[in-house]
Amino acid sequence: MEEIGFLGMGIMGKAMSMNLLRHGFKLTVWNRTLSRCDELVEHGASVGESPAAIIKKCKYTIGMLSDPAAALSVVFDKDGVLEQIGPGKGYIDMSTVDAQTSSKISEAITSKGGYFLEAPVSGSKKPAEDGQLVILAAGEKALYEEVLPAFDVLGKKSFFLGPVGNGAKMKLVVNMVMGSMMNAFSEGLVLADKSGLNSQTLLDVLDLGAIANPMFKLKGPSMIQSSYSPAFPLKHQQKDMRLALALGDENAVPMPVAAAANEAFKKARSMGLGDLDFSAVHETVKGSKSSG
Ligand SMILES: NC(=O)C1=CN([C@@H]2O[C@H](COP(=O)(O)OP(=O)(O)OC[C@H]3O[C@@H](n4cnc5c(N)ncnc54)[C@H](OP(=O)(O)O)[C@@H]3O)[C@@H](O)[C@H]2O)C=CC1
Ligand SMILES: O=CC(=O)O
After folding, report:
1. Which of 116, 128, 247, 281 gives 106 a disulfide partner, CB atoms 3.0 to 4.6 angstroms apart?
2. In 3-state terms, what secondary structure has residue 97?
3. 123 CB under 6 A from ligand 2?
4. How far is the centre of ligand 1, averaged over its atoms, from the C-alpha of 10 (Å)?
5. Is the CB of residue 6 below 6 angstroms from any atom belonging to ligand 2?
6. Hey, which of 6, 12, 40, 98 would you mutate to test ligand 1's pocket, going by the most ligand atoms within 8 Å of its Cβ?
């Protein structure tokens, strides 16, 4: 593949970029806070001065931004993607956003003759470092096929889900389930502890039964230690619950469990825990603030 542009050097963008560099891809990166590009430069990446400059230089550009506002900003604002996108250029937004945001970006890009793919991912910091993401792509099928060599490095499996919006919706459904599960898990950990049971024994029992899963296994031990170093920031999980609930509203789907989970994530944010890992929602059940 030709040189790839990458916008957004947060937890995920940085891990994904490092992985692409390790596999021999040539990258030009950009981040709003420029210093976050330094480590990538040490590993061989070039830096672009704006999203527009990256699009001008690269045939394919990936975006990995925090939320709908950020995803829209890098496309529509001054020196944004739209200023240089055109025929022969592809933009792939891998941020977790709602279908409306993705469609708005898609329409703007395709109206200038560019190609657009949404491709949110399931999997956190470690899977991003290890190329084990699950990629949920939708939009321009030809662009999907052209960037498959990069997706094969970034992920363990890619799905092409059809028209723009389907990738965003699939990702929101998955994270709605994950956020609800994290709340049930937190309540279970606190209930076991307060009723005199050993927390590690609870983890062992869960891991042997029908609801064993990688998330409980990965997050359980650190949650017991009240340690929440951010892999998936809680503020982003709450954004995903909010967007999933809006999707539920649009489709008249009752979601009382997800709504309760969203309230817990909102409470955690109000306690100042938004930049910690989403497992810090545990603190809302424990009823005390973590030192992080
Ligand atoms: N972390 C995870 O486990 C996973 C995250 N995701 C999704 O991936 C996306 C990125 O997540 P993650 O890397 O964890 O998030 P981070 O908070 O670590 O990074 C967010 C990135 O967005 C940039 N950004 C924020 N606002 C703006 C703006 N207005 N204009 C330009 N850039 C902006 C930040 O730039 P700056 O450095 O300047 O602040 C940073 O590069 C999110 O949509 C998240 O939901 C999906 C799967 C897993
Ligand atoms: O969006 C977060 C994830 O772990 O997937």
Report:
1. 116
2. coil
3. yes
4. 5
5. no
6. 12
pLDDT over threshold 90, residue 289: no
Domain ranges of the chain: 4-162, 169-286
Q: Which atom of ligand 2 is nearest to the CA of 174?
A: 5
- Reported as a single tens digit per residue, the pLDDT across 177-207 is 999 999 999 999 999 999 999 999 999 999 9
Measure CA 62 to chain center: 13
Residue 68 CB–ligand 1 contact under 6 Å: no
Indicate whether this complex's ipTM tops 0.95: yes
Residue partners of 6: CB distance under 8 A and separation at least 6: 13, 16, 17, 20, 27, 28, 29, 30, 45, 54, 61, 62, 64
pLDDT of 287 reads 80
Average of per-residue pLDDT values in the chain:
96
Q: Find out whether 60 and 92 touch, Cβ atoms under 8 Å.
A: yes
Instruction: Tell me the two tokens of residue 131.
Output: 């190329």
What CATH fold (topology level) applies to the domain 4-162?
Rossmann fold (3.40.50)
pLDDT 10s digits, 41-95 = 999 999 999 999 999 999 999 999 999 999 999 999 999 999 999 999 999 999 9
In terms of CATH, what superfamily is 169-286? N-(1-d-carboxylethyl)-l-norvaline Dehydrogenase; domain 2 (1.10.1040.10)
Query: Which ligand places an atom closest to the C-alpha of 238?
Result: 1
